[in-house]
Amino acid sequence: MAAMECNYSCQTASETLAWINAIIDFLTPYTFLINAHVVNFFKDRLWKDVDKEWIDCLSKEPTENLLLIPSGVVQDHWPISLKEFILKLRSMVFHRDQADLQAVLPGLRVTSLTSVLAQGMNAKKRHEVELLSAVVSFIANSVRAQTIVDVGAGQGYLAQVLSFQYQHPVIAIDACSHHGNVTDARAERIKKHYAAQMRKTRSDKQNLYVPKTITCQVLSIDTLKNLTEMSWLRDDAEQSRLNGDNHADHDNFSCPRDANKNTSSILAGLHACGDLSVTMLKTFLECKDVKAVVSVGCCYNLLSEECTGDAGFQCGFPMSQAVRSTGLSLGKSARDLACQSAERWRSLEMHDGLHNFELHVFRAAFQMVLSKHYPEVMMSTPSIGRKGKALRRRHQRRIVESQLYLKEPIQSETDGVFCSAKETQALPCEMPSDVRAGCEGTKSDDKYSLFEDFCESALCHLGIKPSDDINFQGIWKEAEPFAELIGPYWSLRAALGPLLETLILLDRLLFLQEQDILLKELFWTNSKAELVKYQKILEVVQTDNFIDCY
């Protein structure tokens, strides 16, 4: 059974606020779930806070069904109250049906990336850059922007496609100087390729744009406004083409400006982290030269929430006056949760999902180790790094080695004839211990072995030598009876993530709707881009599988 249709609208500020209030009212009784730390699952016995009927039901569900909960999929035999919780929750979440880009932006043409431009991109990055570059180029042309400013450009993938393939002057801004150097080096290689192609086709007079990179940490609207008001237009881009010097370090940037020169620009950001997306929207409103903004926000956990006095207007959440007046604060746990992707959960294979649940079990059991033996360390909220990949590699190696061992031809001592191990049925005691564990799968003994490895690795990461007094096996036996409950608990908690993300996005929309300049001209729907009569803003929401326009 799938989720109910969304009955909310955000065409007007009042409708958006009503939607926001409905979300807040729904979330309030579940703050215990939102603010919980799964690492404390065993220590604080968190499953006892959840309806017992829900937990008992979900503990019997296969992993595949648990992975569908964040997407709003329920099973007919579940308790009515559980189904109502999940379906009501999903009915308030932004729909993620893939938009028809041609209907949103008539005439849009998406051009496949050449092998030269796509070099170094994985499939996901290539898909994102291919679509977003086409959208950004289309909007830049429609508003006649002279420059595209790629905010949080990273290694410059988007900026380079916009420059070389779509022939736009681009300024690529990133806080990391290493990223700027990588962008310049990559752009130089691409430039040589395109220059050679132009010589072959005798089109030397065609402009060849190279992204202008700037190393600058964008901490304020004023910084970004100064950067967008630069007069690096076609003359500067052409100069970059001629001298190849396309990098500038602008920690304290200032630039003279020719008032008679058209410096219209648009802001673009692929995965503009935390407050960077917020700064882009505010700059769009405050800087008359910025004609549009195309933003794929991410990392809600990095949003600031210091909303006191006048400084509140500068915080990352909430942005809107209406939400600020309620005094609402999400907190770090809620912002972390907003990053959970229902699409990613749904796309996980059963074994990957089960492995992720096991990692949460190990981490929560390790928290008991810290609580009992290193309480002072636990109080500092330690980070132990990502141990999952190493454990997964070890487990997969065991499985592969066990399969190779069983298939490896061996010689019978009785007749000198070669036969397979499968035919001789080697006894488990004849196998190496780690291979034997792989053959048996992730059984109880093997899970304890993995847990012990997890703890030793985590303690090493924290700079702690394991004490001989630690009874790892005793702690594991204390946690293991409840290990099957962590999957249901985490799935229920993750289901709240998309709703928290919707709340954050609606607050950003309401902030825009509250501004007089946009009140009469801004249109926002769940399936279309929001268009402004003379200025345009396109909020693009990215998932793991596709890019949606809202």
Average pLDDT rating: 78
Q: State which percent range the strand residues make up.
A: 5-15%
Number of helices: 26
Distance between the termini: 25 Å
Number of strands: 10
What's the main sheet like?
8 strands, mixed
Class based on secondary structure composition and strand pairing: alpha/beta
Strand order of the largest sheet: 4-3-2-1-5-6-9-10
| Radius of gyration of CA atoms, rounded to a whole number | 27 Å
Tell me the overall shape: globular
Helix content: 40-55%
Low-confidence stretches: 231-235, 237-246, 248-257, 308-313, 409-441, 517-550
Characteristics:
550 residues; alpha/beta; 8-stranded mixed sheet; 26 helices; 49% helix; 9% strand
Written overview of the protein:
- The chain has 550 residues and is α/β, with parallel strands linked by helices.
- The protein contains 26 helices and 10 strands.
- It has helices at residues 13-27, 31-34, 52-58, 63-67, 80-91, 101-104, 115-118, 123-142, 157-165, 177-200, 221-228, 234-243, 275-286, 321-324, 332-337, 342-347, 350-373, 375-378, 388-407, 421-424, 433-440, 444-461, 472-479, 486-495, 497-513, 516-519; strands at 147-151, 170-174, 212-215, 247-249, 265-273, 290-298, 409-411, 418-420, 536-542, 547-549.
- Strands 4-3-2-1-5-6-9-10 form an 8-stranded mixed beta sheet, sandwiched between helices. Strands 7-8 form a two-stranded antiparallel ribbon.
- The radius of gyration is 27 Å and the shape is globular.
- 37% of the residues are buried.
- Mean pLDDT is 78; it is low at 231-235, 237-246, 248-257, 308-313, 409-441 and 517-550.
